[in-house]
């Protein structure tokens, strides 16, 4: 049975067996999302655990999806599945305290420099502020990478579900404008990133490439991609917090 036929039947009957078929039809979407997150968190969590967390999001998406809206289920489910995984990771408090402390020091350094100068902080300025070398700064960026990704996604998810693109302004006007505002703020913040960081954000989140693929395109190592990604996320989170 095609997915459209499954949806027609499920909407009319809410039959558990049909729901099970929908789960099977979309389980690969959960695995894809879990796989992308596993690339970031693999040192701290098992892939199968991420899939398990994502299935809760898939179930929620199936229950709440309205096929009459002008939104593909995959688009709608993406934020639900990813959000369920992020929520569970946060609840597990899986980030070591030492990593959180490093993150706070880095965040404060970037925030202080960028608020004072009105531009993106460079490595030398951040290292000087922290009293460390640039090499030590890069090591810190690598250490806190997983936490920064979770931190930014929580910030975005908590402000507005901008990735659930429901352009029906008449259904929920306030939510619509909040989504549009958040999308505008995020796009503007990304456009003001240093060029390499902007490119990495675009390739990772919009083109959905892996670090390995981005590394090949940009001609720099995967570890350097990770460091630049971390810096970009830290800048974005600082700017979102300033605006909100």
From TrEMBL:
InterPro entries for the chain: RNA_pol_sigma-70_dom (IPR014284), RNA_pol_sigma70 (IPR000943), RNA_pol_sigma70_r2 (IPR007627), RNA_pol_sigma70_r3 (IPR007624), RNA_pol_sigma70_r4 (IPR007630), RNA_pol_sigma_FliA_WhiG (IPR012845), RNA_pol_sigma_r2 (IPR013325), RNA_pol_sigma_r3/r4-like (IPR013324)
Any GO BP: DNA-templated transcription initiation
Keyword vocabulary terms for this entry: Cell projection, Cilium, DNA-binding, Flagellum, Sigma factor, Transcription, Transcription regulation
CDD domains: Sigma70_r4
Similarity annotation: Belongs to the sigma-70 factor family.
Molecular function (Gene Ontology), one example: DNA-directed RNA polymerase activity
Start and end residues of each RNA polymerase sigma-70 domain: 49-62, 210-236
Protein's UniProt keywords contain Transcription regulation: yes
SUPFAM superfamilies noted in UniProt: Sigma2 domain of RNA polymerase sigma factors, Sigma3 and sigma4 domains of RNA polymerase sigma factors
Species the sequence originates in: Anaerosolibacter carboniphilus
Protein name per Swiss-Prot or TrEMBL: RNA polymerase sigma factor
Function: Sigma factors are initiation factors that promote the attachment of RNA polymerase to specific initiation sites and are then released.
Pfam families referenced in this protein's UniProt entry, alphabetically: Sigma70_r2, Sigma70_r3, Sigma70_r4
